[in-house]
Structures are given as structure tokens and as C-alpha cells.
């Protein structure tokens, strides 16, 4: 014997198989002491009888329950299956770089680079790379003079430069990763910690450079020599302060996004 419930959602109906024993319990006139129609109407839903014929030529009366009268938590439609699915597909189709009649790099989310978050991440990456390059190229010979300030700034720069590179790569490849990470508290904590560490490391390096390297720079200047470490390290701690401020702005943006203001 064929058994099914009929639910109408908007203009279409969905047929779901059920257990015959459940059908007798739910739809029999004697179940629960009330007829099936009265019991369904007692729930406050709009019902309409539907007759379904089985293979044994017997008639069974079911009830069509309007989805508009049911609680909103009963049926939830995923966003991917909604009316905006076509727009989502068009958005994915517009990714990449168009060359003649085809598109390349469609897996890369290039729109992220022109967004506010993408610009901040690119600034953090470029400025952090500049600081690390200057430290390695001009500061290694003077590391023994600068002391712990040099190694502290180099450690800070290397750690946050690596993490920012990984985040930028993941955000560029997957837009879903960007939305999932930005909805968590990770970006707020990470950017806030990077801001504090860069500002403190820059302050310490600036103090060490002006105390230990500046006298050597004056001595080389009077003798006609060139002391390249002092100008380079001065540029590094100034640039490190700027990177710290950029991370501070990114912290504020991530916090607004976390609280739903952006």
C-alpha cells in the first residue's frame, strides 16, 4: 500500500514517504480521541483534504498543511538553494582575469585586493617585508652593538609577516575562508597583538639605535667614512611604527565586523 504526506510550500508540494503504522496513528479518526482533521486544526494550521489512491484501489484521506501557517523554524532553506543562487553563480563566473574569450585565474578572489581589508593586509605584508629585508641586509653586522633590540624586532617582524602572508593567501584563494575567519575573534586578537608588538619593538629599536649607533655614525661622518647601519635601522624603526598603526586600524575594522557594524 502506498503511503505519503502532502505538504504545500508556496506553489509546489513535496511528497515524503512515511510508515503505514505512523499513518494509522496520525490520520485515523480514533487516534488521540479526536478526528485527524480536528486534531490538525487544533494546532492552528490551515489544512485541506487530499485524496490519494493506492495500488489496492482504496482511498485514503490526507491533509495538505500550508507552510505559511507553520512555524518558521520548521523549514529552513539554505542560501545556496534560494533565488539568489543564480547571482552567486554569476559572481563566481566573473572571477579571474579575462583574456580574449576566456578567463584565467578564476580560483583567485581578485576583488579582495581592492577591498578595505585587502588593502590593509597588503600594506601589512609590504611594510613588514621591507622591515625584515632592511634588518637582514644592513643590521646583521651591527647586531652585536644594538643587542636584544635587533633580535626582538627581527623575531616580531618574521612571526607576523609569516602569519599575514598565510592569511592573505587563504583569503585570496577562498572568499568563504575570509568570511569564516572574520566572524571569529581571531583577527581581533591577532591584529591587536601585532599592533602592540610592533610598536614596542620599534620603540626599543629606536632607543638602541640612537644610543649605540648614532655615536658611531658621527664618528664615521667626521672621518669621511660611511656608516650605513644607522640610516637603515632608523628607517626600520620608523617603518615598524607605521606597520603597528596599520595593524591597529585592522584591529578596529575586525572588531567592527565582529560586532556586526561593518
Tags for this model:
four-stranded mixed beta sheet; 9 helices
- Percentage of helical residues? 55-70%
Number of strands: 6
What gap, in angstroms, lies between the N and C termini? 56 Å
Radius of gyration: 33 Å
Quick recap of the structure?
The protein has helices at residues 20-27, 36-42, 85-93, 116-138, 143-146, 148-173, 175-182, 186-222, 229-258, and strands at 4-9, 12-17, 47-53, 59-66, 97-99, 102-104. The chain has 262 residues and is of the alpha+beta class.
Task: Report what the structure shows.
- 58% of the residues lie in helices and 13% in strands.
- Strand 3 and strand 4 form a beta hairpin.
- The strands form two sheets. A four-stranded mixed β-sheet has the order 2-1-4-3, with helices on one face. A two-stranded antiparallel ribbon has the order 5-6.
- The chain is built from nine helices and six strands; from the N terminus they run E-E-H-H-E-E-H-E-E-H-H-H-H-H-H.
- The protein has a domain at 107-261.
- With 262 residues, it is α+β, with helices and mostly antiparallel strands.
- Residues 1-48, 54-58, 65-69, 72-78 and 80-91 have low confidence and may be disordered.
- It is found in: Membrane.
